[in-house]
Amino acid sequence: MHIKTLDNQVSISDQISVDDLTEIAKQGVEILICNRPDGESDHQETFASLEEAAKSLSIEMLHIPFRNGELNDTHRSQFIASLKSGKKVHAYCRTGNRSTMLWASCLQQLGTADTELLEAAQSAGFEVSDVLGIATEPNKEQTDPLGRDYHEVVIVGAGSGGIAVASSLLKRKPDLRIAIVDASQEHFYQPGWTMVGGGVFRAEDTRRSTQKLMPRQVTWIQKPAAVFHPQEQKLELEDGSCIHYGQLIVSPGLKLDWTAIEGLSESLGSNGVTSNYRYDLAPYTWQLVQALKRGKAVFTQPPMPIKCAGAPQKALYLSADHWFRQGSLKDISIDFFNAGGALFGVETYVPALMSYIEKYNAQLRFNHTLTKVDGEKQRAWFKTKNEAGEEQSVETDFDMLHVCPPQIAPDFIRSSPLADDSGWLDVDQHTLQHKKYPNVWGLGDVINTPNAKTMAAARKQAPVVAENVCNVIDGQAPTTGYDGYGSCPLTVERGKIVLAEFGYGGKLLPSFPSWVNNGTTATKRAWFLKATLLPSIYWHGMLKGREWMVAPEKLSRLD
């Protein structure tokens, strides 16, 4: 805990613990305010545990939680009421930044001069010009290339998009000073998890050390990103430290929202409840598939957007194919509960997929969204609407339940000034440049472009971002564009795939000849591509900056 004084009544700090309360009491604090939602990070003391301990020290505790970018009048009115009590107040959040913004916003409302608030906040190490509505010029010292915390390019995320775009940048500008911000020590080839769940790949073959994949010229900052300050060209990390940038590339992926479905988190990994969307659970999927000889298998798909929209039905196809080959399919009923209204978003591929739905005698249940799971009782509940348009709940039993969880942007993206109204990174769909901040870029699952969130999309986006960032660094305008390309190798049976390749608006964008990619039938050649070639292309091509078949396209050629 690091206590900083803002004025005679208010002090702030980073996250506190129960052990810190004695020191806070010694400072004469009478009201202690928490500005963090519970569960925001690991090892965070809950409000309830601190409140209980504070009572013994005669400290009143208030919970006024909000995320960055979500400060509103309700928060202000609660804080102002504490100020008007005349009691000494201490507020805390993860770093002290949010508490300082709340204090400044309230004091401005009460009539304190902006210059006084700016000076007090800056003395404590925080910038409140945004919350006060004061336009400021970027600090030259912060953007000085000689500064120790400055990088020409900062990339948030060491996943597929982050490492690929770093490698593509270095291919164009080998001396570029790049930092990648990500605390994860492991890197995963996530498209392989469908194959793990189908008994084709081993889980361990989809995992590598992040350190071994990091380009040698890149500085790896092994801390989580927390808060964006785009006007100051500054990124705040979870520990409160900051780095400055010339260009910022945001590619942290998305968040699998397991907790959005009641009972799901507690049920996963036992009682037949599984998901190929997690590394540790994909092998359990294959165990369940092999063990099931008769009964009911249920597969689910949540509302869009999700990563790899075909993955939920891929799990169905590979499972059903195993039961078909084993002769047990006749004793197993299969239900596919899809929150959407169609089997696949690009109509061209639906007939080929429907032929397999019919082969496996799977029942399609459209417009059904999973809401609750009871693993012990092996029951699942879905919300849907009846013919009168009234919402109703549908309940089903299962022996095996494969769940695709709802998916949202990471919390620190949704609460940031970089997000659109739905919480996704707000970029131009062709240049991938942020719509408001021209030195901010995005790629991968986190962006709000209307394309399928697939590995192939990130592979096509990385050279576009790299080319455009280099152009801007050289004082030019972006020249290349992304056409929405994505691909989905639909594993309809072991040894055959329907390879879907398409761009914005469902436009077909085949990159392979028809004898490999025939949208009307499943082919063995497409399976060879998925099972043998694509993993190698990923590890040794995409992540190394080798832009095979994804050379960036000129903006002028895009529709």
From TrEMBL:
<dbReference type="InterPro" id="IPR029021">
    <property type="entry name" value="Prot-tyrosine_phosphatase-like"/>
</dbReference>
<dbReference type="InterPro" id="IPR005939">
    <property type="entry name" value="BLH_phosphatase-like"/>
</dbReference>
<dbReference type="InterPro" id="IPR036188">
    <property type="entry name" value="FAD/NAD-bd_sf"/>
</dbReference>
<protein>
    <submittedName>
        <fullName>TIGR01244 family phosphatase</fullName>
    </submittedName>
</protein>
<dbReference type="InterPro" id="IPR015904">
    <property type="entry name" value="Sulphide_quinone_reductase"/>
</dbReference>
<feature type="domain" description="Rhodanese">
    <location>
        <begin position="62"/>
        <end position="130"/>
    </location>
</feature>
<dbReference type="Pfam" id="PF04273">
    <property type="entry name" value="BLH_phosphatase"/>
</dbReference>
<dbReference type="InterPro" id="IPR001763">
    <property type="entry name" value="Rhodanese-like_dom"/>
</dbReference>
